[in-house]
Amino acid sequence: MGDDDEEGREVLRRADRATRLGWTAIAGVTSLLGCALVTLLGAGLLVVVGAVYVLMASDTP
Asked: Up-side HSE of residue 27: CA atoms within 13 Å toward CB?
């Protein structure tokens, strides 16, 4: 009976470790996607500002 208890505890430890690893991976991927989104938004803003600048500069004689 003692072996079954120890085996059960080992299974729970492994499951806990796998769960922590999974959540760490999810957090890492979410962070990377967030950084990519912020970068894309910044690049888009630069494109808009550049386009407005070019349009304003071409209107003046």
From this structure: 6
